[in-house]
Amino acid sequence: MLAEFEIDGSSLREDQIVPWVDLPPELLSPIANSLGIIDLLSLRGVCKDWRSAPSTASTEIKSVPDTKPWFILYEETEKCTLYNPNVKKIYSINFPKLMDSTCLASNQGWLLLFQEGSIFFFCPFSRARIDLPQFPHQEMSDHIAAFSCPPTSFDCIVSIINRCDENTLEINVLKRGDTTWTKNTFERNKWSFGTTVGGIFCDKNGTFYYLDDTSRTLTFSTEERKERNCTIYRIRTYSPDAKRIFGFLPFRYEQNYFRDSGLQDWIGLKDDVSISTCGAIIPGRRSNLLIRNECIEASNGTSKCQMKGIWIQPRFFQIPVTQSWLV
Q1: What distances in angstroms separate CA 90 from CA 38, 72, 82, 93, 168, one per listed residue?
Q2: DSSP of 205-256, one letter per residue?
Q3: Are both 286 and 220 inside the same structural domain?
Q4: Rounded Cα–Cα distance for residues 265 and 267 (Å)
Q5: Predicted confidence (pLDDT) at residue 238 exceeds the cutoff of 60
Q6: Best-predicted range by mean pLDDT among 100-104, 223-227, 258-262?
Q7: What are phi and psi of 231, to 5 degrees?
Q8: For residue 145, which of 105, 207, 270, 276 is within the disulfide window of CB 3.0 to 4.6 Å?
Q9: Cβ–Cβ under 8 Å, residues 319 and 58
Q10: What is the pLDDT of residues 265-307, one digit of tens each?
Q11: Are residues 29 and 77 in the same domain?
């Protein structure tokens, strides 16, 4: 005999009740779109049908400027620790693509990763990946990158800076649809521009800005003539008493974001642990924020464990299987 259930005064037989796993897409999609990133991942992990449900969800902070980014902490395995400083919650999550990888840039939920000779964009929460053409270098050391907008945009431009030697800087550029990188070299010694610690693109003037560890910024424009598209400026703290103002940076930047965040104590890093972090670009109401890269050495002077960290906006992007850098 079939059991009967009463809902709002109406009786339903057991054979009329639809199991949760059989929810139609038109009901499942709005549910997914109303969830935060962690709940969305949990929903998609229930079953195959739920994982393939259409969703336009990106993040609960997408429309809220100046919200703190999340932090991914990992070693050389797929197991990562995810920190949400806005609500002080910690999650354990697997990001296999971060294994043996170096993060060159983080912007709008996309990471630019270099892994075993390959370079690609990666959204860790949706696992979306967009491969880029072969990079001229097979190894990365002091390379720092910036990209103008999400890689799904036809206007996306990527630039990667590194020092070839004590007197030469190299900037490789790739525009959406390009099959090869364009190399630019400039005679700039390490005393005029030190170790690069972050990069950002400014839409207003179409210029990349790279910051070093000695309060200098290098500007690089892909539009100007080669002989004058790379300029170095010294960054000075604004003073009301200044007689002359040469200009302002079109963005804000944080020099010691990780150190000042209190995450080191919250995470509980031991004295023998060193950590290198990849900064990120965070949209703001008036101007974007550049979080610089940081290297924190083991406090006891002896590093037994080298960890990596990435600041990221928690976005969820679904892309077509045919999506590529060339399409």
Answers
A1: 11, 10, 6, 10, 43
A2: TTEEEEEETTSEEEEEESSS-GGGSEEEEE-----TT-S------SSEEESS
A3: yes
A4: 5
A5: no
A6: 100-104
A7: -135, 145
A8: 105
A9: no
A10: 887 777 788 999 999 999 888 889 999 999 988 877 776 788 9
A11: no
Q: Which residue has the higher pLDDT, 30 or 108?
A: 108
Q: How far apart are CA 25 and CA 254, in angstroms?
A: 43
Kindly report the backbone phi and psi dihedral angles of residue 326, in degrees, each rounded to the nearest multiple of 5, phi listed first.
-90, -15
Q: Which of 43, 64, 20 is nearest to 285 (CA)?
A: 64
Amino acid identity, residue 264?
A: Q
Cα dihedral sign, 186-190-191-195: positive
Q: Which amino acid is at 159?
A: S
Residue 192 three-state SS:
coil
- Given this model, what pLDDT does residue 263 score? 86
Domain extent for 25: 1-57
Beta bridge partners of 305: 273
Instruction: Indicate if 144 and 19 belong to the same structural domain.
Output: no
Alpha-carbon gap, residue 149 to 283, rounded angstroms? 12
Nearest to 182 by CA among 148, 217, 226, 138: 226
